[in-house]
């Protein structure tokens, strides 16, 4: 793995205004991600994880501080930065292959190249044979695999994943975590994944970024120096997990904070809320 600073987030603060109150979603957050690294971000609900991801991907702006990707200031979305959300967001009227091909929209590739890339990525996520299926014919895990293929198909430099397995059952989740880790090892794409699941963060991350809420800050960055694929039942894994949990509990227990999360969320739908700054 090279040590090029790939994505740098420097002193980033992001505030929102809700009902004339200012919410500081992120305060003075700095993080430097190296090329090919897998960084996971955990934290209680409302601590700014998604805000950080959206800013990094260029889907949000209005922050103070600076975000650079390969040395260039991030000013908006780019084909170099892919994103996968918790819901796969597939178009129900398009087949799996056409949904994946959407990731190549505006990528300037020929029809033949598009076909080749879609086939390759169907294979990569284990959906060969489902190219012509429609989203309603897929299980939740399969749909999320299609979402991941769409995020990867144009070979982004960085793939941002916002709780990609959050809606899946425990068995499918563990399976897809394993698959994502092999895709990452094979494709060498920088990945930044947000999760509520400490096991997932330790299983996948080279480093686990622990965030604390109100205002959202980085509390600690925990390196995970364990060989891959990781053995979740090993004592070394358990030690890192315990460390991350302790770090989270330094602010509040995750369960406790999630129970009060409603208080930190805007009551109005987000598009109706003005951004500060
Ligand atoms: N568009 C927006 N308008 C107003 N407030 C927002 C907006 N986006 C985020 N916030 C607020 O910023 C804070 C951080 O939200 P964010 O969604 O980043 O947290 P999170 O850690 O990803 O939470 P969760 O784990 O529940 O998804 C919250 O208090 C939230 O209400």
Automatic annotation (TrEMBL):
<protein>
    <submittedName>
        <fullName>ABC transporter ATP-binding protein</fullName>
    </submittedName>
</protein>
<comment type="similarity">
    <text>Belongs to the ABC transporter superfamily.</text>
</comment>
<keyword id="KW-0547">Nucleotide-binding</keyword>
<dbReference type="InterPro" id="IPR003593">
    <property type="entry name" value="AAA+_ATPase"/>
</dbReference>
<dbReference type="Pfam" id="PF00005">
    <property type="entry name" value="ABC_tran"/>
</dbReference>
<dbReference type="InterPro" id="IPR003439">
    <property type="entry name" value="ABC_transporter-like_ATP-bd"/>
</dbReference>
<keyword id="KW-0813">Transport</keyword>
<keyword id="KW-0067">ATP-binding</keyword>
<dbReference type="InterPro" id="IPR050166">
    <property type="entry name" value="ABC_transporter_ATP-bind"/>
</dbReference>
<dbReference type="GO" id="GO:0005524">
    <property type="term" value="F:ATP binding"/>
</dbReference>
<dbReference type="InterPro" id="IPR027417">
    <property type="entry name" value="P-loop_NTPase"/>
</dbReference>
<feature type="domain" description="ABC transporter">
    <location>
        <begin position="7"/>
        <end position="238"/>
    </location>
</feature>
<dbReference type="InterPro" id="IPR017871">
    <property type="entry name" value="ABC_transporter-like_CS"/>
</dbReference>
């Amino acid at each position: 793995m090279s040590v090029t600073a790939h994505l740098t987030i420097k002193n980033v603060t992001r505030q929102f205004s809700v009902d004339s109150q200012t919410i500081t979603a992120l305060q003075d957050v700095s993080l430097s991600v190296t090329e090919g690294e897998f960084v996971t971000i955990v934290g209680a609900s409302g601590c700014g994880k998604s805000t950080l991801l959206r800013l990094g991907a260029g889907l949000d702006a209005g922050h103070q501080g600076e975000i650079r990707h390969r040395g260039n200031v991030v000013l908006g979305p780019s084909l170099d930065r892919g994103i996968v959300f918790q819901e796969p967001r597939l178009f129900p009227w398009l087949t799996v292959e056409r949904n994946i091909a959407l990731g190549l929209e505006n990528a300037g590739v020929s029809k033949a190249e598009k076909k080749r890339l879609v086939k390759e990525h169907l294979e990569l996520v284990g959906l060969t044979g489902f190219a012509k299926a429609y989203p309603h014919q897929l299980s939740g895990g399969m749909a999320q695999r299609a979402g991941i293929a769409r995020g990867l198909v144009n070979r982004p430099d960085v793939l941002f994943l916002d709780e990609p397995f959050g809606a899946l059952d425990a068995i499918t989740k563990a399976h897809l975590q394993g698959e994502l880790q092999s895709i990452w090892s094979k494709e060498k794409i920088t990945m930044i994944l947000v999760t509520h699941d400490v096991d997932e963060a330790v299983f996948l991350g080279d480093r686990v970024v622990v965030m604390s809420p109100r205002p959202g800050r980085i509390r600690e960055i925990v390196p995970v120096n364990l060989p891959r694929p990781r053995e979740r039942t090993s004592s070394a894994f358990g030690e890192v997990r315990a460390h991350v949990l302790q770090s989270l509990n330094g602010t509040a227990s995750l369960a406790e904070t999630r129970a009060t999360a409603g208080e930190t969320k805007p009551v109005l739908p987000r598009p109706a809320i003005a951004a500060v700054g």
